[in-house]
Amino acid sequence: MAAEKRVTFRSPWLPWALLAPQVVIIALFFFWPAGQALLQSLQQSDAFGTSVEWVGLENFRNLWNDETYLASFVTTAVFSVLVASLGLSLSLLLAVFADRIVKGSGIYRTLLIWPYAVAPAVAGVLWLFMFAPSVGIVSYMLREGGFEWNHLLNGNHAMALIVMAAVWKQIAYNFLFFLAGLQSIPKSLIEAAAIDGAGPWRRFWTIQFPLLSPTTFFLLVINVVYVLLDTFAIVDAATSGGPGKDTSILVYKLYYDGFKALDLGGSAAQSVVLMVIVVIFTVVQFRFVEKKVNY
Amino acid sequence: MKSRPLVLASIAVTVALSAPAHAQVEIHWWHSMTAVNNEWVNDLANDFNASQKDYKIVPTYKGTYDVSMTTAVAAFRAGQGPHILQVFEVGTATMMASKGAVVPVTQVMKDAGFKFDPAAYIPAVAGYYTAPNGQMLSFPLNSSTTVFYINKDAFKAAGIDTSKAPATWPEVALAAAKLKASGHKCPLTIAWQGWTQLESFSTWHNVELATKSNGLKGLDARLVANSPLHVRHIENLANMSKQGLFIYKGRANVPEASFVSGECAMITTSSGFYGNVKKNAKFDFALASLPYYPDVPGAPQNTVIGGASLWVLAGKKPAEYKGVATFFNYLSSPEVQSASHKRTGYLPITMAAFALTEKSGFYKENPGTDTAVNQMVRKVTDKSRGIRLGNYVQIRTIEDEEFENVWGGKKTAQEGLDSIVKRGNELLERFEKASKGG
User: Fold this and answer.
1) Confidence band (pLDDT; 50, 70, 90) for B19?
2) Which among B101, B407, B423 has the least Cβ separation from residue A48?
3) CB contact under 8 A, A134 and B73
4) Is the pTM of the predicted complex or chain greater than 0.90?
């Protein structure tokens, strides 16, 4: 549908020069560390790095033989689906409401965007405080209501806790993009539909939602990457992967093995696996989901 | 020819005179002590700095034990590590395996010309930090052990005799039941569950946690913590958890807060918790030995140490190592150690410091403070000398995870312990291989 736009430059070096700053940044902050991780995943060393040994694919074999590592793929899938779906739908809902507000919209928007400035670890601690089994305000209210909340021993409660923290942390970002997306939809389209007799529900599903699809698609990619790579601090602060391994998602195990257990080889191997997963995911999203997007 | 030495001498004098301003050697010490213990560490450094002019100890708080270790690793790789690093006990095997990164304490002391006698130390303390060849590798600073605290006011409210704390696990269960019957929400909680309920539990009952004297005798040690006695104990605790007698409050020392606040009436945790309770608890409390099973032959034996020791990192100047040795020599004096012991609740570390503390009448004035020492000064056996297992940071986490599965009812005691042994041994095998290869 969309005709490809091509820009032609007269001089051959100009496009490269324009790209250069971005290429340098990506090389420095992505390709170089990624290359290092690739190298380290083939090595084993003591904590201080005084003896380094090339071990081929042994780090990967160790992972493959670790049942708990394989189990954490399932945990990660559950966590990712919950966070991405809840995060996107809640923020879309909020954005639609905020879009309709006439008075005081600035205040609502500011308040909704605020959580984005909170560091993930702080978000984890914040929710942990509210849900702490003996002193948390929310767990107290739940107990009064006859519900025994205990994320220290109940895996489902623990999962709910980190999902809430991760969603809350990400809502602001999603909200911002959804709101911008909604506001860029020409009012005339909506008005025309209203004149034709379409109700708000109908207008949303037939006009706004399809026109938002580029934003939704972009946010889906960003959210999946966020969940897979950026949530270890929340898990670390709120549950440390427990109870048992019920909330030990891939990136948390990676962080734990590398930074707490000082197993750099094993941790690097996990980061390579995760990198591959994220790349595959993104490619799949671009190949299949993007086809449904109207630009 | 004769004037030359004179010139040299005069230069030397000038240098010596200007020395105090310039030549003071700075020794960097990274530690993980917070709150009251942070003040203690700073006082140690200040007192040492005031006692002489050649060296200046600069203590820096670098985060919790695991964070400061990671930071030191990164700094060492960049050539900017500290001279002295405080490392927690579970990091011991990792430090020992990093041969190129550390200088054995025995070596540091010998090179500086100080007398250093490992036999002066409490056996279970020295044993923990001594290599198989008899060389002491790190300097024990804050050694603690596992003890049992009870809230006397809560006991009285439940109508339980407080003249003697429950000494055995059956007595603990009985007291917990009475507390619960009187309306207490959290009769018993457990901090450092792996350390108190597996490691110390094993040495206290003189059973092996791992083969090869719990790893002290070789890297090919394997966990055997699923023996009938271990299963019996964990099953007991799981039942208490089900009945609401034991309330799980989290990993590491997180549960300690629930004792200080009065929410939980009994806790097994570190003797280093004493300073905190004494300062912050608004109730009458008592310290007692770790509970045991009276029908187990040889129990109670001795508990195992925890806490941390000071490691000397490699790659520094000889003059700086001399400063490190001078500082350690200062820390070794019975007076300094006895004062530290009284202040923090950590072990006195040397027999002389223990004797000095006893003579001062401290234990009589503060009943219970000698509990930890008494648990430690006994003659150790091959099964109780200490624990040294590679990848132990991860193994502790495995213990936490599997215990949570047991307390939550997801696994039986046997399944949980079997899983600890299986997963732990995989890590031990890997560590053995890596250490041999490297």
Assistant:
1) very low
2) B101
3) no
4) no
Query: If one looks up domain B21-143+306-365 in CATH, what number appears?
Result: 3.40.190.10
Residue B12 has pLDDT above 60, yes or no: no
Contact predicate A265/A55, CB 8 Å = yes
Nearest CA in chain B to A51: B438
**What percentage of chain A carries pLDDT values higher than 70?**
98
The residue-averaged pLDDT of B235-259 equals 94
Among A46, A68, A242, beta carbon nearest to B400: A242
φ, ψ of residue A199 to 5 degrees: the values are -75, 175
Of residues A44, A47, A242, nearest to B73 (C-beta): A47
The whole-angstrom separation of Cα A12 and Cα A16 is 8
User: What whole-number distance in Å separates Cα of residue A184 and Cα of residue B90?
Assistant: 58
User: Model confidence over A262-277: pLDDT tens digits?
Assistant: 888 899 999 999 999 9
CATH code matching the domain that covers B145-304+382-437, chosen among 3.40.190.10, 3.30.70.360, 3.30.2010.10, 3.10.580.10: 3.40.190.10
DSSP state of B430: H
Question: How does pLDDT run across B268-302, given as a tens digit for each residue?
Answer: 999 888 888 988 999 999 999 999 999 999 889 99
Same fold, B21-143+306-365 and B145-304+382-437: yes
Per the listing, tokens 């005179």 go with B17
A46 interaction partners in chain B (CB closer than 8 Å)? 94, 97-98, 101, 434-435, 438
Under 8 Å between Cβ of A152 and A133? yes
Separation in Å, CA B364 to CA B29, B340, B355, B360, B361: 35, 17, 13, 9, 5
Token pair of A252 as six digits:
């948390």
Alpha carbons B226 and B426: distance in angstroms, whole number: 15
Query: ipTM score of the complex?
Result: 0.84
Class of the A51-292 domain? mainly alpha
Question: A244 and B410 in contact by Cβ < 8 A?
Answer: yes
The pair of three-digit structure tokens given for residue B132, joined into one six-digit string: 């198989």
Q: Three-class SS of residue B139?
A: strand
How far apart CA A48 and CA B391 sit, in angstroms, is: 14
d(CA B43, CA B363): 23
Q: Could you say which of B94, B263, B397 has the minimum Cβ distance to residue A47?
A: B94
Find the chain A residues whose C-beta atoms sit closer than 8 A to any C-beta of B. 44-51, 53, 62, 65-66, 68, 133-134, 152-155, 240-245, 256-257, 259-263
Q: Is A49 in Cβ contact with B77 (below 8 Å)? A: yes
**In whole angstroms, what is the distance from residue B387 CA to residue B125 CA?**
11
Chain A residues with CB under 8 Å of B186 CB are 134
